[in-house]
Amino acid sequence: MIVSEKQSASPALDLDGLFDASSVAVIGASGKPGKWGFGILSIILMKKGERKVYAVNKRGGEVLGLKAYQSLREVPEPVDCAVIATAAEDTAAVMEDCVHKAVKFAVLFSGGFSEVGGEGVRAEREVAEIARRGGIRIVGPNCMGHFDAYSGFFTLPYKLPVNAGEVSVITQSGNSGIGMLAMLHKVGLGISKYVSSGNEADLHFEDYLEYFGRDARTKIVLGYLEGLREGRRFLELASTITRDKPIVILKAGRSGEGAQAARSHTGALAGTEAVTAAAFRQVGVIRVGEINDLVDTALAFAGQPLPRGRRVGLLSMGGGLGVISTDALRSHGLEMARFSEKTIEKLDSVLSNRWSRGNPVDPAGDPRPYPCIWPLLEDENVDAVMVVGGIGVVGGLATLLPVHPSLEGEYAGLMQDAEREELANFDRLIEMRDKYRKPVVIARTVSGVMVEETSKVFEKMQQHFMTPYTSPERATRALARLVEYSEYLGIA
Amino acid sequence: MIVSEKQSASPALDLDGLFDASSVAVIGASGKPGKWGFGILSIILMKKGERKVYAVNKRGGEVLGLKAYQSLREVPEPVDCAVIATAAEDTAAVMEDCVHKAVKFAVLFSGGFSEVGGEGVRAEREVAEIARRGGIRIVGPNCMGHFDAYSGFFTLPYKLPVNAGEVSVITQSGNSGIGMLAMLHKVGLGISKYVSSGNEADLHFEDYLEYFGRDARTKIVLGYLEGLREGRRFLELASTITRDKPIVILKAGRSGEGAQAARSHTGALAGTEAVTAAAFRQVGVIRVGEINDLVDTALAFAGQPLPRGRRVGLLSMGGGLGVISTDALRSHGLEMARFSEKTIEKLDSVLSNRWSRGNPVDPAGDPRPYPCIWPLLEDENVDAVMVVGGIGVVGGLATLLPVHPSLEGEYAGLMQDAEREELANFDRLIEMRDKYRKPVVIARTVSGVMVEETSKVFEKMQQHFMTPYTSPERATRALARLVEYSEYLGIA
Q1: Domain range for residue B20?
Q2: Which of B144, B446, B473 to mutate to test binding with chain A, by most A CBs within 10 Å of its CB?
Q3: Are A141 and A274 in the same domain?
């Protein structure tokens, strides 16, 4: 647990060599599945490219087709980055080797340091001191790796599906970080840079934040945070960065017991709940309550224009869903837009006289969502649109198939027509959304559960970061975050 | 909108003929995919069995291989149940036909009644009055069908995956009900009886509740509720039923605008929020906030022994997950159990000296969850166990595969061994859970996202209603409902 308040006037930190090392050595490399030194090396090799990769294992021999050097000192060429997965007690000696080799960055997976207290705290200080002496910057210890999806340098222990994109992640929990990555991929979001910061013996959450703030490929910063080591610096950085890109933070350790668990996890001191909340709000940091929430919020920021107010036009393909969704919107402080007379007229011309004639728009059985969306986007009393159900269902036909085998041929034709029509409608939806600069969030419900996630419509939704949320409540929460940020920026 | 306060002393309502009609006519039957009269008839035919099924369509001819009678009166044999999907304006005449044929039950899909106000209210009264005169009990109008998964009588418009089981559902929203069914199936829960009650012109939420309360196959009642027509009767029924089986209700229309939307949906008057909450609590009704919550809670009640207290032993396969989960448990008023000395000793003997030595149990890298669970179940200071991550991952190997192609053969063997071991461990988990009568809720995280949902382990989890929750927050919320009910019954 190393707590300090750095001067924020220090020169900009350069972590380029960490995220795109030209030569890397894995210390504790292993050929045995299940060992971290195996996972890490295998994954580095998968996207090797021009990068030089060396395996170090004190038993020597060969590991995954590479010569295994018994010590880092034996590696004949320069090593920029050392990835260390040895036992805690061996780490100081390994760090001395790193100094000897003039390594620039070390990623320390090894645990058993400050998070276990007592001797671990002293051992961590020792390792950090050796590194500092050699000018080596450390990620970790007790971390689960880092990567840059553009450079292809991955130090993860697991093979995860990751596409290059615009979200960067800083996490003080390796497992939560890996969960985040899996979920981000599932909704179609790509990553720029990722780091599991571990015990932060040297590089802090704030350092990565500064670097990601400057990274042109990073459009959204997500953080899992247990405690800040440089609170003032964090707030200064955040207040600058949030002018350009949203920072979304899950602050864990909110309860007394949670904070205690955080101490024995990464040795971080969780600040007072109320102080954190107020400080974050002041610098425009979006604070969320769970990992799903982080991912949902990132999705909204990736895909949507920022709303100019909190008045929502709600289209619910089902009356009950409209009631539930209205409850959700109101509970997040969003407002139900009052439609203009013109909007009511437009909807009258599209829908049967049984529609709800108000907000939420309940088409009362009419299965066509799109003609109801256009008037809402055009209405100047509407700042954002939420659609519950209906989209991505391929005209409701998917849900019927195959109720009667005698009609299978007929179905196939109908499905194709419906899919073609829906794809065209969805293109228009994106156009309209961008023309009117109003966010459109989609929630799945009934139909969503059954919609094939590999359908062309779903694929298109993912491409445009319009992946449906799994409930009206989650869609609402994400929309409320957009409004919050918009209000901070003075747009709403 | 027909509001009345019935006498609760009336004789027990017999709906057997509704849920297992021996002869049924679909009025408005259609051969055209997309029409409700098509979906409904197709689905009735799929599980026809000995049931006599008649198609009625005023244009005559043939529908899905059946002769289509131009009027119900032409059907040569008796009809017990009429399923009506005609236009609102034709429904009164159809109901006269039903009276003429001495039909006992009518399921009215047709909309355009009290939910649209004005003329619709009068039309609904007229239809209800005709039915009352003929002694016909009505489901709906403006409903989306009903079924009994044991009798095989389904009047749904869509083909949904439904297994027979112990959950019964009453819903005032057809779409929300269908969403519920899809989600219940996804987590492995089967259904006994289901009804979408629509506008409740005749049969009310309370009637179905009374009937499901007596149904021996119903162990859990789920309700989506916008408004009660017989509040006092509901509370009387609930106070009796909750002694035997949990009633879990999603009360929609909590916000002012939500309540307004409810009025134009099913014409139900949503009661005051605070009054509802207090009244529900008094009769042991579990109140939830969203559809996911309904399903999560049903899953907990289906699979778990009732806890004897609120002290939770938490095993988190990852430190950050432990922090998040502790926050979640505390925010739901659950307590972090203080382990006995013996439990600490047992865990010491299993885990490396890096484990957290407290609650949450963080094995600090040890990937074996089961040896950590047994001591928690055995500890008398623990009332319930929550496991976050680790289970269903097949020893963590699934996540590694296939990082290095050269090892594929080796992996396959390791995976098989791991799966065999995990299946045996899971069997023991069920035994231990039932022996100590302590609920064990499982949350997926990182690994969960990647676990194959068709794996044998996942299948076994579903069979035992131990399907993992998709986040620690959702697992916690479900566990808190168990504790709430347990406390109501005086067990906790």
Answers
A1: 13-142
A2: B446
A3: no
Q: Is residue A6 part of a domain?
A: no
Question: What does the pLDDT look like over A302-326, one tens digit per residue?
Answer: 989 999 999 999 999 888 899 999 9
Query: Of chain B residues 356-415, which have a CB less than 8 A from chain A?
Result: 356, 358, 360, 362, 364-365, 389, 395-397, 399-404, 406-407, 410-411, 414
Mean pLDDT (whole number) for A429-456: 79
Whether residue B477 sits in one domain with residue B372: yes
Interface of B with A in 304-363 (CB under 8 A): 317-324, 326-331, 336, 353-354, 356, 358, 360, 362
**Interface membership of A242 toward B (CB under 8 Å):** no
Determine, yes or no, domain membership for A1. Answer: no
Per-position DSSP letters for B384-409, written without gaps between them: EEEEES-TTSTTTHHHHTTS-GGGHH
A320/B224 Cα distance (integer angstroms): 9
Q: How far apart are CA B305 and CA B300, in angstroms?
A: 9
Indicate the range of A197-201, A306-310, B350-354 predicted with least confidence.
B350-354
What pLDDT band is residue B43 in, cutting at 50, 70 and 90? very high
Query: ipTM of the assembly?
Result: 0.90
Contact B302, B167 (CB under 8 A): yes
Predicted confidence (pLDDT) per residue in B481-490, tens digit: 999 999 999 9
How many angstroms separate the CA of residue A335 from the nearest CA in chain B? 9
The Cα–Cα gap between B483 and B284 comes to 12
Decide if B168 contacts B222 (C-beta within 8 A).
Answer: yes
Q: How many domains does chain A have?
A: 3
Is residue B138 located within the same domain as residue B185? no
Contact B254 A171 (CB under 8 A): no
The model's pTM is 0.92
Q: What is the mean pLDDT of chain A?
A: 90
User: Does B4 fall in a domain?
Assistant: no
Which one of B284, B303, B322 terminates a domain? B303
Residue B199 has pLDDT above 50, yes or no: yes
Q: Does residue B155 form part of some domain?
A: no
Q: Is B70 helix (H, G, I), strand (E, B) or coil?
A: coil
- Tell whether A377 and A443 lie within a shared domain: yes
CATH at residue B29: 3.40.50.720
Q: Please indicate, yes or no, whether residues B270 and B405 belong to a single structural domain of this protein.
A: no
Run of H or E including B298: helix B291-303
Q: Which pLDDT score is estimated for B285? A: 98
Instruction: Determine contact, residues B46/A403, Cβ cutoff 8 Å.
Output: yes
Instruction: Determine the length of chain B.
Output: 492
What is the SS3 assignment for B165? Answer: strand
Tell me: do A131 and A165 sit in the same domain.
no
For residue A274, the domain's CATH number is: 3.40.50.261
Q: Helix (H, G, I), strand (E, B), or coil: what is residue B449? A: helix
Strand partners, A247: A221
Beta pairing, strands A146-148 & A153-154: antiparallel
- For residue A283, the Cα-to-chain-centroid distance in whole angstroms is 20
φ/ψ (deg, to 5) at B186:
-60, -35
B207: number of Cβ within 10 Å = 23
Same domain, A385 and A345: yes
Three-class DSSP category at B222: strand
